[in-house]
Amino acid sequence: MYADQLMDLIRQGEVEAVRDLVRAHPESAEARDANGVSMVLQALYHRQSEIVDLLAGARTEFDLFEAAALGREADVTALLERTSLDVVGDRGFAPDGFTPLHLACFFGHEDVARLLMRRGADVNAVTPNPLKLTPLHSAAAAGSTALVSALLEAGADPDARQQAGYTALMSAAMHGNAEMVASLLAHKARTDLAADDGRTAAAMARDAGHVSIAERLEQ
């Protein structure tokens, strides 16, 4: 009922309008879009932190996907106590295609990600959407070397390809993240792979002006 209205407000960053709506209609904080994605997650995706706080603050319960994305470790722990491990494995995808581990990694919640891995989350789960992301891609996109390293140590494939043929090494290289590049290389990430546009990680680093990283990858 409130999803379309909230979605418009989230896109526009209308914090006060969301505040007024939630105050008048607390149930609006539970709204989900036509695909089943909650407005809490949509606000997170749109990086509207104040709106996230407003919506989450009006809620008393969260599903595992929301709790992981919000970094609510206590809620994740409680949910895992009564939820089949399938929900954190390769069958447990949210309506938009992400697992709790993808979400914890993308939003940089290391403690939650490690908890999910300890409980059996699939570190190589591929999103059944056009992005074709693994949790490693999500961690690389978040710029978290600690999460990238933890995933690699747990058996994540360093050379998994996402949409357009990109690997985590390419992401780290183009963003100039030397520490992440080093971690990926230490776990045998291949430097010779090329994305769909024909560029290797070294070429991407060089194109972005990260010459020292490009030179290391070309060795």
UniProtKB/TrEMBL annotation:
Instruction: Give GO terms: molecular function aspect only.
Output: ubiquitin-protein transferase activity
- Gene3D superfamilies, per database record: Ankyrin repeat-containing domain
Keywords, sorted A to Z: ANK repeat, Repeat
Cite the InterPro entries for this sequence. Answer: Ankyrin_rpt (IPR002110), Ankyrin_rpt-contain_sf (IPR036770)
Q: Which Pfam families match?
A: Ank (PF00023), Ank_2 (PF12796)
Q: What PROSITE patterns does this protein map onto?
A: ANK_REP_REGION, ANK_REPEAT
Q: SUPFAM superfamilies recorded for this chain?
A: Ankyrin repeat
The ANK repeats extend over 96-128, 131-163, 164-196
For the biological process aspect of GO, one term held by this record is: protein K6-linked ubiquitination
Q: What is this protein called?
A: Ankyrin repeat domain-containing protein
What taxonomic classification does the UniProt entry list for its organism? Bacteria, Pseudomonadati, Acidobacteriota, Holophagae, Acanthopleuribacterales
